[in-house]
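Hi Y.,

Following your request, here is the sequence exactly as I used it, all 429 residues.
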Amino acid sequence: MDKVDVIIVGGGLAGLSCAYELADSGMTVIVLERGDFPGSKNVTGGRIYLSPIRNLLPDLWKDAPLERHVTKEILTLMGKANSTTLELYSERYNQEPYPSYTILRAKFDRWLADLVSEKGVFVIPQKNVNDLIKEDGKVIGIRAGDEEIGADCVVAADGILSFFAEKANLRQPFKPQHFALGFKEVIELPSQTIEDRFGLGEGEGAAQLFVGSLTKGMMGGGFLYTNQESLSLGIVVGIHSLNVREPRGEVYKLLDEFKERPEIKNLIKGGNVVEYSAHLITEGGIHIKPKLYTDGMLLVGDAAGLGLNMLVTVRGMEYAMASGVLAGRTIKKAKEKNDFSAPSLAYYEQLLNESFIIKEMNSFKSSLLILENERLFSKYPQAISDLFEKVMRIDEHPKEGLYKTISKALRENFLNLQTFKDWLQFRKI
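Below is the corresponding structure, written out as tokens. Let me know if you'd prefer a different format.
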């Protein structure tokens, strides 16, 4: 059996970041990716936060194919026939180094794969890894078809349903409430059209989130991100919500219906859909974090359950990249000792616990409980939109005082025991 130093299974952000960290170590590193090329099957909403990871990968961002730096945050609460939008523009977001960017994974992942290849890592696409090879309980390599390749360390970067995490007995299968299903389209539009419609300057971007009637009471929401010459538009729905909903219907139609809303239709008018994708998203946060290491093997990115829904912010890409870098540093330290046992690789968990990743996931450990509250996606967005419509509307009747209008809406929709209980839950976030 041929042997290398490190095998990385999966050519997404976590796997490629690990390869990037190891590229100058003198070790022989291979990345095995089952897609046609890295990025060909990877799906993301489309926003990456660089501030937490800039120092981990200091030389990476100068030439990276990022889209627009985000200067405008938009949150839209959607009722059945109305909506209320909260918009933030900050000049702080328009000062270098820019905190966050929109991103297209097919472009970015392929660029990163080419970069690590130039640095000496072997990136092999269209390679499906079937199994782990173990000896006395230790992972010593992988099996890909009829081929067997040995390694001092295997890095499982094979995504949210990680076959290898289960094969290594590092986790049990997730429950439905730990997943959401996302549908996404990339819609081409001229750069100037995008800037005009969203009120953006050259190179500036917007990130818009939607919650309310678009998911028909199910846990989830919508997103819209501006790229250089396209929009990333999508909708996410919790798997558990789909399982208990009667009738279930055809979920993919939610995106089509979302696109027909005037709030969206006017933004995408004249655009050409050039990409459609669907993907599972982790929602379990810290509650689904598995054991991260065993003899001869580490988990990174989605395979390690490293994702977080903070209600108004969804995190994943920077978690993946940071975990890949920290896994690479762990492997380099293990190589120095020539010790890839579980106690040696436990250094990886120490690094993660000291990082922003685990600290944030612990801070938002109650977010899953909040997300299971149906009223967050039905009653409250509708009530807030109705209230704003009453405040702003002028009709044939004499307008009553603002205090009376607002007080009445609060009594009808918010001043009750159920809302109080919801507020107590929300305080935990």
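The chain has a mean pLDDT of 90.

Thanks again,
Q.
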